[in-house]
Amino acid sequence: MRRWYRYGLISAGEFSEGWNETQLEDIRTVKTQTARGATLLEIRKSHQSGFPLHSYGWSALKGELLWQLEFGTDRALSRYVRTIMRDYSSNDVVNSLLRPVNRWLQEDTRDGAIRRLRRFHQCVVQRAGSLTRSSRRSGDIPLFLEAISVKDDNEIWLEAIRLAGQGFSVDVSSTVTNTPVTISSRHEHHVMWCGAGISAGMQKHFSDSIADGKSVMLCGPDCNLTH
User: Inter-axis angle of helices 113-138 and 57-71, to 10 degrees?
Assistant: First the structure.
Protein backbone atom coordinates (compact mmCIF):
# COMPACT_ATOMS: atom_id res chain seq x y z
CA MET A 1 0.00 0.00 0.00
CA ARG A 2 2.90 2.36 0.66
CA ARG A 3 4.10 1.80 -2.90
CA TRP A 4 0.58 2.36 -4.25
CA TYR A 5 0.44 5.61 -2.25
CA ARG A 6 3.80 6.84 -3.55
CA TYR A 7 2.66 6.00 -7.08
CA GLY A 8 -0.33 8.31 -6.66
CA LEU A 9 -3.00 5.58 -6.68
CA ILE A 10 -4.19 6.39 -3.15
CA SER A 11 -5.48 9.86 -2.28
CA ALA A 12 -3.26 12.07 -0.15
CA GLY A 13 -4.26 12.58 3.46
CA GLU A 14 -3.17 12.78 7.09
CA PHE A 15 -2.05 9.55 8.74
CA SER A 16 -2.41 10.51 12.38
CA GLU A 17 -5.57 8.40 12.65
CA GLY A 18 -4.78 5.86 9.93
CA TRP A 19 -6.27 5.63 6.45
CA ASN A 20 -9.41 7.70 5.89
CA GLU A 21 -12.51 6.40 4.10
CA THR A 22 -11.52 7.87 0.73
CA GLN A 23 -8.12 6.22 0.93
CA LEU A 24 -9.66 2.90 1.99
CA GLU A 25 -11.92 2.99 -1.05
CA ASP A 26 -8.89 3.72 -3.25
CA ILE A 27 -7.08 0.77 -1.67
CA ARG A 28 -9.99 -1.57 -2.32
CA THR A 29 -10.14 -0.42 -5.94
CA VAL A 30 -6.41 -0.87 -6.55
CA LYS A 31 -6.48 -4.25 -4.81
CA THR A 32 -9.19 -5.43 -7.21
CA GLN A 33 -7.31 -4.07 -10.21
CA THR A 34 -3.93 -5.56 -9.27
CA ALA A 35 -5.60 -8.89 -8.48
CA ARG A 36 -6.44 -9.03 -12.20
CA GLY A 37 -2.80 -8.40 -13.10
CA ALA A 38 -3.03 -4.72 -14.06
CA THR A 39 0.27 -2.88 -13.69
CA LEU A 40 0.60 0.26 -11.58
CA LEU A 41 1.37 2.25 -14.73
CA GLU A 42 -1.83 1.02 -16.40
CA ILE A 43 -3.86 1.88 -13.31
CA ARG A 44 -2.33 5.36 -13.03
CA LYS A 45 -2.98 6.09 -16.71
CA SER A 46 -6.62 5.06 -16.23
CA HIS A 47 -6.94 7.29 -13.16
CA GLN A 48 -5.38 10.28 -14.88
CA SER A 49 -7.28 9.95 -18.16
CA GLY A 50 -10.64 8.91 -16.74
CA PHE A 51 -10.84 6.14 -19.32
CA PRO A 52 -11.66 2.52 -18.37
CA LEU A 53 -8.70 0.42 -17.31
CA HIS A 54 -7.21 -1.65 -20.13
CA SER A 55 -4.74 -4.39 -19.24
CA TYR A 56 -3.51 -7.72 -20.58
CA GLY A 57 -3.33 -8.87 -16.96
CA TRP A 58 -1.40 -11.85 -15.72
CA SER A 59 -0.90 -13.26 -19.23
CA ALA A 60 1.38 -10.33 -20.06
CA LEU A 61 3.29 -10.68 -16.79
CA LYS A 62 3.77 -14.41 -17.41
CA GLY A 63 5.17 -13.60 -20.83
CA GLU A 64 7.57 -11.05 -19.35
CA LEU A 65 8.77 -13.51 -16.70
CA LEU A 66 9.32 -16.24 -19.29
CA TRP A 67 11.27 -13.73 -21.42
CA GLN A 68 13.49 -12.94 -18.43
CA LEU A 69 14.07 -16.65 -17.83
CA GLU A 70 15.11 -17.11 -21.44
CA PHE A 71 17.09 -13.95 -22.18
CA GLY A 72 17.52 -11.84 -19.03
CA THR A 73 20.59 -11.74 -16.81
CA ASP A 74 20.40 -13.14 -13.29
CA ARG A 75 20.32 -9.58 -11.93
CA ALA A 76 17.53 -8.51 -14.30
CA LEU A 77 15.48 -11.59 -13.45
CA SER A 78 15.88 -11.00 -9.72
CA ARG A 79 15.00 -7.32 -10.11
CA TYR A 80 11.88 -8.15 -12.14
CA VAL A 81 10.57 -10.58 -9.51
CA ARG A 82 11.39 -8.14 -6.70
CA THR A 83 9.42 -5.39 -8.45
CA ILE A 84 6.44 -7.69 -8.98
CA MET A 85 6.47 -8.58 -5.28
CA ARG A 86 6.37 -4.88 -4.36
CA ASP A 87 3.48 -4.05 -6.70
CA TYR A 88 1.09 -6.94 -5.96
CA SER A 89 -0.04 -8.91 -2.94
CA SER A 90 1.94 -12.08 -2.26
CA ASN A 91 -1.22 -14.18 -2.69
CA ASP A 92 -1.82 -12.79 -6.17
CA VAL A 93 1.82 -13.06 -7.27
CA VAL A 94 2.20 -16.65 -6.11
CA ASN A 95 -1.20 -18.00 -7.13
CA SER A 96 -1.68 -16.07 -10.38
CA LEU A 97 1.91 -15.79 -11.65
CA LEU A 98 4.61 -17.91 -10.03
CA ARG A 99 2.69 -21.16 -9.57
CA PRO A 100 1.26 -21.16 -13.12
CA VAL A 101 4.72 -20.41 -14.54
CA ASN A 102 6.20 -23.17 -12.38
CA ARG A 103 3.66 -25.68 -13.73
CA TRP A 104 4.40 -24.58 -17.28
CA LEU A 105 8.14 -24.97 -16.75
CA GLN A 106 7.73 -28.39 -15.16
CA GLU A 107 5.86 -29.61 -18.24
CA ASP A 108 8.04 -27.88 -20.82
CA THR A 109 10.06 -30.25 -23.04
CA ARG A 110 11.54 -27.77 -25.51
CA ASP A 111 15.24 -26.98 -25.86
CA GLY A 112 16.52 -25.10 -22.85
CA ALA A 113 13.72 -26.31 -20.55
CA ILE A 114 16.12 -27.59 -17.88
CA ARG A 115 18.07 -24.32 -17.89
CA ARG A 116 14.90 -22.20 -17.58
CA LEU A 117 13.58 -24.35 -14.73
CA ARG A 118 16.92 -24.17 -12.93
CA ARG A 119 16.98 -20.38 -13.25
CA PHE A 120 13.42 -20.15 -11.97
CA HIS A 121 14.28 -22.34 -8.97
CA GLN A 122 17.34 -20.26 -8.12
CA CYS A 123 15.32 -17.05 -8.37
CA VAL A 124 12.47 -18.37 -6.21
CA VAL A 125 14.81 -19.68 -3.49
CA GLN A 126 16.72 -16.39 -3.50
CA ARG A 127 13.53 -14.35 -3.22
CA ALA A 128 12.16 -16.55 -0.44
CA GLY A 129 15.42 -16.19 1.47
CA SER A 130 15.37 -12.41 1.10
CA LEU A 131 11.77 -12.14 2.29
CA THR A 132 12.22 -14.45 5.25
CA ARG A 133 15.36 -12.63 6.40
CA SER A 134 13.65 -9.22 6.20
CA SER A 135 10.59 -10.51 8.07
CA ARG A 136 12.78 -11.65 10.96
CA ARG A 137 14.15 -8.13 11.28
CA SER A 138 10.70 -6.56 11.26
CA GLY A 139 9.41 -8.82 14.04
CA ASP A 140 6.59 -10.47 12.10
CA ILE A 141 4.72 -13.49 13.50
CA PRO A 142 7.09 -16.52 13.69
CA LEU A 143 5.92 -19.47 11.58
CA PHE A 144 7.57 -22.80 10.81
CA LEU A 145 6.89 -24.22 7.33
CA GLU A 146 7.68 -27.92 7.07
CA ALA A 147 7.70 -29.91 3.82
CA ILE A 148 5.85 -33.18 4.44
CA SER A 149 5.72 -34.06 0.73
CA VAL A 150 6.36 -32.18 -2.50
CA LYS A 151 5.77 -32.71 -6.20
CA ASP A 152 8.61 -30.41 -7.22
CA ASP A 153 11.47 -28.43 -5.69
CA ASN A 154 9.79 -25.04 -6.05
CA GLU A 155 6.44 -25.40 -4.30
CA ILE A 156 7.68 -25.17 -0.70
CA TRP A 157 9.58 -21.96 -1.54
CA LEU A 158 6.58 -20.47 -3.32
CA GLU A 159 4.51 -21.09 -0.21
CA ALA A 160 7.23 -19.44 1.91
CA ILE A 161 7.03 -16.35 -0.33
CA ARG A 162 3.23 -16.27 -0.02
CA LEU A 163 3.29 -16.56 3.77
CA ALA A 164 6.09 -14.01 4.20
CA GLY A 165 3.99 -11.52 2.26
CA GLN A 166 1.12 -12.07 4.68
CA GLY A 167 3.15 -10.88 7.65
CA PHE A 168 4.81 -14.07 8.88
CA SER A 169 8.46 -14.58 9.77
CA VAL A 170 8.94 -17.90 7.99
CA ASP A 171 11.50 -20.60 8.78
CA VAL A 172 11.52 -23.38 6.18
CA SER A 173 12.30 -27.10 6.47
CA SER A 174 12.48 -28.04 2.78
CA THR A 175 13.82 -31.60 3.07
CA VAL A 176 11.19 -34.37 3.19
CA THR A 177 12.19 -37.02 5.75
CA ASN A 178 8.88 -38.49 7.07
CA THR A 179 10.30 -37.82 10.54
CA PRO A 180 8.85 -35.04 12.72
CA VAL A 181 11.23 -32.12 13.11
CA THR A 182 11.85 -30.27 16.35
CA ILE A 183 10.00 -26.95 16.37
CA SER A 184 11.41 -24.00 18.30
CA SER A 185 9.22 -22.64 21.07
CA ARG A 186 9.41 -19.21 19.44
CA HIS A 187 7.26 -20.33 16.49
CA GLU A 188 3.65 -19.35 17.06
CA HIS A 189 2.41 -21.36 14.06
CA HIS A 190 3.41 -24.60 12.36
CA VAL A 191 2.33 -25.31 8.77
CA MET A 192 2.84 -28.83 7.40
CA TRP A 193 2.97 -28.61 3.58
CA CYS A 194 1.53 -31.62 1.72
CA GLY A 195 2.24 -31.45 -1.98
CA ALA A 196 1.82 -35.18 -2.59
CA GLY A 197 -0.10 -36.66 0.34
CA ILE A 198 0.90 -37.42 3.92
CA SER A 199 2.19 -40.66 5.46
CA ALA A 200 0.36 -42.44 8.27
CA GLY A 201 3.17 -41.58 10.68
CA MET A 202 3.11 -37.87 9.90
CA GLN A 203 -0.69 -37.87 9.99
CA LYS A 204 -0.50 -39.29 13.52
CA HIS A 205 2.08 -36.67 14.46
CA PHE A 206 -0.28 -33.97 13.19
CA SER A 207 -3.23 -35.43 15.13
CA ASP A 208 -1.13 -35.70 18.30
CA SER A 209 0.00 -32.09 17.92
CA ILE A 210 -3.61 -30.94 17.59
CA ALA A 211 -4.54 -32.95 20.67
CA ASP A 212 -1.70 -31.25 22.56
CA GLY A 213 -3.17 -27.85 21.70
CA LYS A 214 -0.41 -26.79 19.32
CA SER A 215 -1.03 -24.26 16.53
CA VAL A 216 -0.47 -26.62 13.60
CA MET A 217 -2.30 -27.06 10.30
CA LEU A 218 -2.04 -29.09 7.11
CA CYS A 219 -1.69 -27.06 3.93
CA GLY A 220 -1.12 -27.85 0.28
CA PRO A 221 -2.82 -29.34 -2.77
CA ASP A 222 -2.87 -32.94 -1.51
CA CYS A 223 -3.46 -33.67 2.19
CA ASN A 224 -4.74 -37.22 1.59
CA LEU A 225 -3.26 -40.13 3.51
CA THR A 226 -0.74 -42.16 1.50
CA HIS A 227 1.00 -45.45 2.18
Answer: 110
